[in-house]
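notes to self, project folder thing:

trying the whole complex as one job this time. last attempt i did each chain seperately and stitching them together was a nightmare. two parts in total, labels are on each line so i dont mix them up again. if this works i'll redo the older ones the same way
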Amino acid sequence: MGFKIMGEEKVAVHISKELYEKARKYVEESEGEFKSVDELVEFVLKEVLSEEVEEKVFTKEEEEKIKERLRALGYI
Amino acid sequence: MRKMFILGLDCTPPKILYEEYNVELEYLKEIVEEGTRFNLKSCHPPITIPAWIVMFTGKTPGELGIYGFRHRKPGDVRESYIVNSRFIKAPTLWDVLGRRGYRVGVIGVPPTYPPKPVHGFMISDFITPGPEKPYTFPPLLKVELERFFGPYIFDVIYRSHEKDKIVKELFAMTKQHLSIVQYLLGKKRWDVFIYVEIGVDRVHHAFWKYFDREHPRHVEHPVYSKTIPEYYKLIDEGFKSIKEKLPKDTIVVITSDHGAKAMKGAFVVNQWLEEQGYLKFKEKPRRPGEDIDREIIDWEHTMVWGWGGYYARMFINLEGREPKGIVKKEEYEDLINQLKKDIRKIKGPKGEPWNSKVYTPYELYPEVNGDAPDLIVYFDNLSWRSAGTVGWDTIYLPENDRGPDDAVHDWHGVFAVYDPEGTVGKGFKGEIRIERVFDLLMKLMQS
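result (full assembly):
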């Protein structure tokens, strides 16, 4: 079932209690980097999945930027 | 289970690591003197991509289908794509060992962006667009590292006249990398740890003429002549701290992917092709440094064009493959043979003979996959780089067409290995081909 926090639709997922406790501990030790387990889970999944779902590794702008760098470095 | 630490110094030649030419090494020297060393024969082409991945897969560039940082899309003269980790289809050393239960740490090996899951951890290489991208595996490692070390520094832009800025940035980048490596060695579980430092290549390219007294444009400079020695000192001292963190029985490998030597100049490949009648411009390019593109080449009268870099790639305007191909399939072989003859006859600016090398990919590799060039050319055996741009009033440029560069690549790099368990012996063992390193490393891990 979906609900909205700050305008963005969210859904609930279930993870093992053991993993949740580990994640909670990580959040506590993250010195404010992550404010909640939700935030941590969101970050990790985003990082893991972002490259997987994108067919292209580089955006057009990134590709141009890299080529410019490679030119400056003498590779091309 | 054996443990191994591999220090990859991109571009280090034997002259520096083995003969200590102009540098003072203490801790790296111990490995060289106490262990076995080889002259590492790089691959064709001897360039960072594909060389490291050839080393860590044991496959030739032809088998991998990787011939440089970029490849062309057939049928298009300007369009090219950048190689990334997804092009690596062969299993790497960390894949194979990971599957066997070894925990791996892989830092900065080109090309490992985007990072793939490994049995351990990974930080991707300098092709990574920037620290805002996901560049570690596991993803949380990025957060952990940035908390202590700030955003990861992937590279420096060295081809600029702001030498002081380059020195500052180079040292800052390498210090960060060394600190991260030490942190990971102490904090994480690992059995095989690979760390490739790209800064070595950058310092060579930016400061070689101040360092190498045999460079044709050698300049003795109170500060810049000391930059390469000081950089190696930084690496040497960083290695001392690294070594203190390694378990006593760890096998230590110090390796590079290719060597370095003085750049004599840049050869304007497309203007030479025009002079020889292989290429025709619609009108004479007048702006020095102009890129070749569809608009300026008269494709109906062009048989061959070339790309720049540390080596030249040449492409035949082949009928059926290129949009305006004029070379018929049955003419291809004869054209290749004629080109080879003409390339071997090229002389230097003062009429001095050159030792240029030219190959088809089929002569070099057991398999030719991907988008290979038709010819691979090393002008004067790599001493002259290839300038792909046009509009120059000479075909011999004293400097790189993209700005100043003091060094080019050389065939021989280094490979030194020390095993405290005494399985590898001592002394100089001649040449090892880069494709053979994978098997040797696997054997060492099983010793």
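what i see at first glance: Chain A has a mean pLDDT of 81.
need to look closer tmrw
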